[in-house]
Amino acid sequence: MAPGLIERYRDRLPFGPGDPVVSLNEGSTPLVPAPRLSERVGAEVLLKIEGANPTGSFKDRGMTCAVSDAVRNGAEAVLCASTGNTAASLAAYAARAGLRGAVIVPEGKIATGKLAQALMHGARVIALQGNFDVALRLVRELCAKQPIALVNSVNPFRIEGQKTAAFEVLDELGPTHPLDALCIPVGNAGNITAYWKGFQEMGAAPRMFGFQAAGAAPLVHGAPVEDPETVASAIRIGNPARWEEAMAAMTGSRGGVNAVTDEQILDAYRFLAAEEGVFCEPAIAASVAGLLAHGAAGARRIVCVLTGHGLKDPQTALVQAGSVVPCEPTLDAVERAVLG
Ligand code: AN7
After folding, report:
1. Are 44 and 68 members of one domain?
2. Where are the beta strands (DSSP E) in 178-291?
3. Same domain for 65 and 148
């Protein structure tokens, strides 16, 4: 059994030996070669499968640290604004810790699986008549007023936890096979900030390529987007909290930020599922769509971060996938149906 990441990386995280640890044994996710994608790109591409975390997204890395710190500080409740995955993760870790959890999500705009998770774990789910950016502003104001721990990625412990994904990538590749580039979807810009911190702490500097959905691409435009819109609901964010840090990561590593259209995102989403056997969330396919559309400046070895599991959003999958084959319960009919 692999231990959770606080235990695994305690020497590089802000936790002492006696500190409380709230963990679901997150991290230690697979790094999987992608032969078909590698062929299309003309470079070696590996997929970091963050959907293999306990609640199905990379958010668990940050949440084990943010919730452990909240417990250490004697908090009774934790709160976040979320496009869905942070809400699901907060709810699970709050349940684990015996804390009250509340999440504010844009009404009608989060994927079904994420909503089911947050509710099942017993969090108070508040559907805001406003988008993520409004939700984040309001939770920041509320947490300044009330003794509630804010666990969005503006919380430094989130970044600390999420940087461990960079450690894992480097550990797995080993010193003789350097990583040239990392491709990652960018929403609130916490994760790219965290990877870059992790790489820098280990003396590595792969080029960081961030990708945003064309309808929610403030970093590409250089200005906030008032009404972000994209099929990639996880990254439907118009004013990222970690704007400066994300830009510093991309420019400091000689990488860059680019936009991909919903069509490119959905193409990559279907390609990964059908050709690589990897089912990720639509938003996440932005990293692969971006790599296919924009390349990675001649990098020979590339990791694409697949931040969340495809089961989070069954509705988008069913719209994008083929249909079922109806069949009468006879051998003849089944034979015809199977052989097509
Ligand atoms: C699967 O859950 O913002 O750039 O509130 O769910 O660190 O924000 C989620 C974002 C990428 C973007 N992939 O990461 C939330 C939320 C998935 C995500 C991102 C999100 P950041």
Report:
1. no
2. 181-185, 207-213, 256-260
3. yes
Q: Splitting the chain (340 residues) into consecutive groups of 10 residues, what average pLDDT does each group show?
A: 91 96 98 98 98 98 98 96 98 98 96 98 98 96 95 97 98 90 97 98 97 97 96 95 97 97 97 98 94 94 98 95 95 96
User: How many angstroms does the Cα of residue 330 sit away from the middle of ligand 1?
Assistant: 47
Distance from Cα 264 to the centre of ligand 1, integer Å = 19
- Look at residue 331 and tell me if it is in a domain: no
Are 210 and 277 within one domain? yes
Q: Which residues line ligand 1 (CB under 6 A)?
A: 57, 82-86, 153, 185-191, 234-235, 281, 283-284, 307-308
Domains contained in the chain, number = 2
pTM above 0.85, yes or no: yes
Q: Which two tokens stand for residue 193?
A: 């900030």
Atom 1, ligand 1: residue with shortest CA distance: 308
Beta-bridge mates of residue 31: 48
Range of the domain at 271: 5-56+158-320
SS3 222: coil
